Amino acid sequence: MIRIIVLGDQSFWQDEALTAYEAQLPLGAMITTVVHVETTPPLYFVLIWAWAHVFGNGEVALRSVSMLAGVALVPISYLAARDLVSPRAGVFAAAFVTFNPFLIWYSQEARAYMLLAALCGASFLWFVRSRRDPSARNLVWWAVWSSLALMTHFFAGFLVAPEALWLLWVAGSRRAGAGLRVAGGAVGVVALVQVAMAPFALIDTGHGVGWIAHAPREVRLSQAISEWGVSILYRRTTVNQGLLGGAALLAIAAVLLMAGGDRRTRRGAAVAGSLAAFVWVAPLVLGLLGHDYFLSRNVIPAVVPFAVVLAAACAAPRSRAFGAALAVALVALFVYATIQVQTKSYLQRPDWRAVAHALGPATVPRAILAANGQTAIPLKIYLPHVSWVQPQSQEVRIGEIDVVGDIKRLPLRPIRIVLPKQQPVWYRPVASPVPSNVDVAGARLVDRFRVDNWIVARYMLYSQKGLSVKQLLALAPRYFRRTPAAMLVFFQPPGR
After folding, report:
1. What counts of helices (H) and strands (E) characterise the chain?
2. Taking a C-beta distance cutoff of 8 angstroms, is the pair 303, 116 a contact?
3. Dihedral of CA 135/141/142/144: which sign?
4. Which of 141, 167, 233, 388 has the greatest CB tally within 10 Å of its CB?
């Protein structure tokens, strides 16, 4: 229910604003934009484009696809754990995905990750069924869900590929020629889909994913472990806390399975655990080879198999009391983190909707100078008549400059950064640049106010002047107390 009742409470953040922009384009222009800007295959964006043309492109409308996928994840997890382990394990798995704050967060986001989780969950469910009974029906359904998952995100391959090899091995070990042919056909179809999606990884000329590797690998691993447990609260944990917490949970689950699990429970946990581990470990290994894309949300294809592993441990027949205690503890942790995230504004997405409302409609042509660069892109969605793409060198006559600077949203712990061939250094996040509070040459300050964690200043030019984005970037030091390291500059014509 929490996935639904607060679906529109938070405004779009940077990536969601891009989704909203793409959803309002003509179909051909949308596909062209996705091909050159996004870093994933196109299924989600085609779906969201059609959805937006029926239900609109507001927060609730666009996020509804992820919300429905998040709801679907509950019965998928139950069925997968039931079929692989036991009905009791199915109940635990369903409870884990229902209350998990990480999954609730992405069920409220207009991006592809929750659809990816649901499709990969369905692929895993039909893999479980095909492994037990490699009938044409089961294998066809596995091929359908696996193909759709591969058309949604490249990381689906880390789940689908070992599933495919496993199914071929099962079919071959039974020495049934017809069964092997059916399995081979299903795997062949999925392989063709994967090949067809490969060009989307090569065509992307937009922002890419090189930024991921800028953070140390052990930091991202720790953050992924913590984020899967407490969502955005991971920002309050240290690297060691995340790694030790994950290791402790796996150790407890292993002890419960070894001490209290029967043969079916252990075997089911081993099947699910091996696939979940591959989804996590394979990207880490590729990172050592120079292709480092490991990130908490990218490994979301492992969420259903991992939930099944935990559910199997909690449902182990000879350690039910301890298993139930672990399940209660996990659900309590999930509920606590969910309440924190849903009730603390500094843990939520930046409220650019409130900033746009405070800026109001433009009465004269104006420029917006926003600190922290691309994070302010949602303003282009919420402010009327703003063009998403604006030339950098073309001059536009303006009579007003609005400056948006923010203060730090969340008190963060100091971060230890180790650079190659250098001593470790400690970096403590500081407040972002805020607007100046005095008149500047050629303009006077007419208003200065605070909106949540932003400070906004409005300057009226003494006479309208033609300026370009590049020129405004050069003038930025006049309007900020400290020049931002990154800034978003765009124009807004008058009108409601």
Report:
1. 19, 7
2. no
3. positive
4. 167
The neighbour count for residue 51, using CB atoms within 10 Å, is 18
Q: What distance in Å separates the CA atoms of residue 61 and residue 93, rounded to the nearest whole number?
A: 28
| Angle 119-123-125 from CA coordinates, rounded to 5° | 115
Per DSSP, the three-state class of 293 is coil
The type of residue at 220 is: R
Q: Which residue's entry shows tokens 């239900």?
A: 55
Residues constituting the chain:
496
Q: Is residue 388 helix, strand or coil?
A: coil
Among the listed residues 202, 107, 157, 97, the one whose alpha carbon sits nearest the alpha carbon of residue 298:
157
**Residue 358 CB burial class (10 angstroms; 0-12, 13-18, ≥19):** middle
Residue range 15-34, pLDDT digits in tens: 999 999 999 999 999 999 99
pLDDT (tens digit per residue) in 218-237: 999 999 999 999 998 888 88
At 206 the three-state DSSP class reads coil
Q: Per-residue pLDDT tens for 414-472?
A: 444 444 444 444 344 444 688 988 999 999 999 999 998 899 999 999 999 999 999 99
